[in-house]
Amino acid sequence: MSTKIQRRRSKIHGNGVFAKEAIRKGEEIVEYKGQLISHAEADALHYGDVMSGHTFLFTLNDDYIIDANVGGSVAKWINHSCAPNCVAFVHGTDDNDPAKDRVIIEALRDIGPGEELSYDYDIQIPGKLTKELKTIWACHCGAKNCTGSMAKSRKEEKKKEKREKKKLKEKRSKKEKKEKKGKKDKKGRKKK
Ligand SMILES: C[S@@+](CC[C@H](N)C(=O)[O-])C[C@H]1O[C@@H](n2cnc3c(N)ncnc32)[C@H](O)[C@@H]1O
Ligand SMILES: [Zn+2]
Fold first, then answer.
1. What DSSP assignment string belongs to 60-114?
2. 35 in contact with ligand 1, CB cutoff 6 A
């Protein structure tokens, strides 16, 4: 992992991570590493402040945050995009130990050499997403569908979850219809 990427200046923000060579859809690219800290410890950090607009913290699960300021990998330089080409997956272990969960950045689609890597940070603001917070977390990803802010309100998040559930339901029902049709066709052929 991570041999196909490099850190350099980005048009989106500061440093970014770019593909040195082609990366295939579904490929595991790099692990988001850092020191594991509790949510309370993260809240106490001066750089954990929601008003800072900059973070190297990644919410791993209900127990832990990964603080990439300490022992972070190159993954900490990957920027956010509203049209990302990567996704950050949390991988659990069989013993369900939250301290053993790991975050792996995976390609959502084929990525060409020179392309900047990005994923959806899914930053959730506790409480109301005010205009000020939206500005603090302003997004410069440049995507056509850019929402203008990296931060999402709980309301937006719920809407997103609803949309995703609906999509999944539609996908399942399409699959079921297809399977039913397949069975019918088979039956039809048998009769002939
Ligand atoms: C994990 S760092 C990514 C590396 C960052 N570019 C840097 O040089 O420090 C996350 C921070 O980068 C900035 N950032 C990442 N994606 C951005 C985007 N789409 N628009 C504006 N700022 C972004 C924000 O300040 C965010 O908190
Ligand atoms: Zn954006």
1. -SSSEEEETTTT--GGGGPEE-SS-SEEEEEE--TT--GGG-EEEEEESS-B-TT
2. no
> Which of 63-77, 126-140, 144-158 has the highest average model confidence (pLDDT)?
63-77
> Which residues, at least 6 apart from 141, have a Cβ–Cβ distance to it below 8 Å?
12, 79, 80, 81, 82, 83, 118
Indicate the residue type of 42.
A
Q: From the CA of 13, how far away is ligand 1's center (Å)?
A: 5
Sequential DSSP letters for 29-62: EEE---EEEEHHHHHHSGGG-TTS----EEE-SS
Residue 64 pairs with which residues in a beta bridge?
38
Residue 71 CA to residue 103 CA, distance in Å, equals 14
Does residue 140 line the site of ligand 1, with CB under 6 A? Answer: yes
Please give the model's pTM, rounded to 2 decimal places: 0.82
Ligand 1 atom closest to the Cα of residue 76 is: 1
